[in-house]
Amino acid sequence: MTETPNPALGQRIRAAELSAAMAEFIVAARFEDLPTQAVEAAKIFFMDTLACGVAGRGYEASDLVLAAASKWGQGDVARIIGRPGVKLPPPAAAMVNGYQMHALEWDGLHEYSVVIALGAPTAALLAEAEQRPLSGQALLTALCVAIDVAVFFGAASSSAPKFFRPAIAGQMGAVAALAVARGYDEATTLNALGLAYSHLSGTMQAHWEGSMALALQVGQAARAAHQAADLAEAGFSGPVDIIGGQFGYFTLFEEPGDVAGELGRLGNPWKMPEMAHKPFPAGRATQAVLTMLYELQAQTPFDWREVERLDVYAPSLILLLVGRPLTETMTPAYARLCLDFVAPLMLIDGKVDPLRFVLEVFADPDIASLSQKVCLIDDGNPDPNALGPQRCELTLTGGRTLSASCVHPLGAPGYPLDADGRRRKVQACGAAGKSQSQIDAFMEAAMAIDAADDISRVLDFIC
């Protein structure tokens, strides 16, 4: 039987040049080509992400992830943050570490792409460094590439997230990081990207419900990146046209925006200096409100018992992400994404303590009373991915009103944490993870990591 030629067959990879351009960017990356600003930012955010992993060690759900992952295969190879003596096969270790890094919603993000971009790549690279020596310069190069790739998949979208970008965009960044660390050629990198795309998972439903599975999706992304890279290295092929294809990323996962333009901006400029810290252990969509309340309390002291109403005017994405009611039985993951909880917590405590995300605090009548006074209002911003600007009006007893606006929340590139602020956050992460030892030595080693032939010394401090 003679097969009839299919005229559409040649169109099945019609936009594969998009994927090829990404692979070319990944393979061409060199440490010596990174600007100093990108290298310094990469060291700072690597340190911050590791500290967040220490903090996540203190969240009881991370013990459940470890218990399950400990059953998945043999091989005492890769260490787990904050757990001396515990080793797992690299993909399993990547998953547990990735979970811990995002468990408290404290890890950094890229603002305009709405991608919490560091967890999956960092977790994947830690596991990689346990298998073969990884220099500090190789690590930093891989992280910078990972952020650019992850940001691309968020920034090129014209729609609000339906899938969980820290997982799906983060996974694509993680596999790019491994391609750099392992020195893949373009063909192997293209297959690794395609195989990682075939592993993609993680939706906003876990975010919507505040499920334990929310942070798990970041851990799964780190694990899947390892599996995809290993398959590609073994010679396994993946789909090619993963960006603009018939069933590519911008058909299935996101609505396309300026895809070609964002692809052309890979490394131009490098996105690592655009990353933002989260000074408060809560969802990014709460950070502007928390910044405004923190500053109002510092500028014009008042007692939280004076508060009669808090009106917050914010873009629709903020309402989608954190506009949820406080309940006495909510999970810690839900509470970190609940403005009705974290705003009262800031008003009462003057800070957001990660150790306060427990049932007895959720049932606190003072917090419940304040939560009823929080009103989140759509400001009409037409951008479905906008996180700001935001403004608030705090009405106090006697008719006194305090107002504030926020374009750049504390920790954003336009309002960065200084060295003291970064140290305070590392200390707070250590307290949350019940580990305060060697903080200064850890920070010193992390900030000098570009001179390290092997990054294992930094891992010694946190594992």
Give the structure's gist in a few sentences.
The protein is of the alpha+beta class. It is 51% helix and 7% strand.
Structure description:
This protein has helices spanning 16-28, 36-57, 61-69, 90-102, 119-131, 136-155, 165-182, 186-199, 205-209, 213-233, 249-252, 259-264, 284-299, 316-322, 332-335, 339-349, 359-362, 365-371, 419-432, 439-447, 456-462, and strands at residues 78-79, 87-88, 109-110, 275-276, 307-314, 374-378, 390-396, 401-406. It has 463 residues and is of the alpha+beta class. It folds into two domains: 10-279 and 453-462, Orthogonal Bundle (2-methylcitrate dehydratase PrpD); 284-406, 2-methylcitrate dehydratase PrpD (60s Ribosomal Protein L30, Chain: A, 2-Layer Sandwich), CATH 3.30.1330. It has a four-stranded mixed beta sheet. Strands 1-2 form a two-stranded antiparallel ribbon. Helix 3 (61-69) packs antiparallel against helix 4 (90-102), helix 7 (165-182) runs parallel beside helix 10 and helix 16 crosses helix 18. The longest helix has 22 residues, at 36-57. It is globular, with a radius of gyration of 22 Å. The relative contact order is 0.14.
